[in-house]
Specification:
Peroxidase, domain 1, 2 domains, single chain, 4-stranded mixed sheet
């Protein structure tokens, strides 16, 4: 998971509190996702965060690009632009999601596989991990060809290594521990 700055965490905490208090968590999530998606395009991110572009122009451009934002989100975007913090939107979104998952009792599971999971495999893995944790899970997927096959899952501090590489490492340690030399 990417590092989230202290500033982004503070903004996320503030908007999460507001969203929770106004029962608008899903609306805030959708608006934050839209904003972060716009900033994924490097040219849009440069133009919308550049101090060389007047603030009024950046705000007007965001109004055109993101019509229909809830009023409180529009105010939040204006604050980010005024403070030169718009580039934090993807981090704010990530921390908002983390808070929302925690609020809803969803476990985040970081999953590494040797090849990308197809939809059916992803569903089966999510169901098994959900039974294991006793909670709904959201998978954060990563491909690691060094695993050879199988899966490695991290749930908080717990690591579940069911990869071929992990099995080979465990076998190697057992064999190395059990070998005695005679002279």
């Amino acid at each position: 998971m990417a590092r989230i700055s202290g500033s982004a965490r503070r903004y996320a905490a503030a908007v999460f509190g507001l969203a929770r208090d106004t029962n608008s968590l899903d609306a805030w999530l959708a608006d934050l996702e839209r904003l972060a998606q716009v900033l994924q395009a490097p040219e849009a991110e440069r133009a919308l965060t550049s101090p060389a572009v007047p603030e009024a122009q950046r705000l007007a451009a965001l109004e055109r690009i993101l019509p229909g934002l809830q009023p409180q989100m529009r105010s939040f975007v204006a604050i980010l632009v005024q403070r030169g913090r718009l580039q934090l939107a993807p981090e704010i979104l990530a921390d908002f999601r983390r808070r929302l998952d925690e609020h809803r009792g969803v476990a985040i599971v970081e999953v590494s596989t040797a090849i990308p999971l197809d939809a059916a495999s992803e569903r089966v893995l999510a169901e098994r991990l959900s039974r294991y944790t006793g909670r709904q899970v959201r998978l954060e997927k990563r491909v690691d060809p060094d695993l050879i096959g199988g899966v490695v899952a991290r749930i908080g501090d717990e690591l579940i290594d069911d990869s071929v590489r992990g099995r080979l490492d465990r076998l190697h340690r057992r064999l190395a521990g059990g070998v005695t030399t005679t002279g």
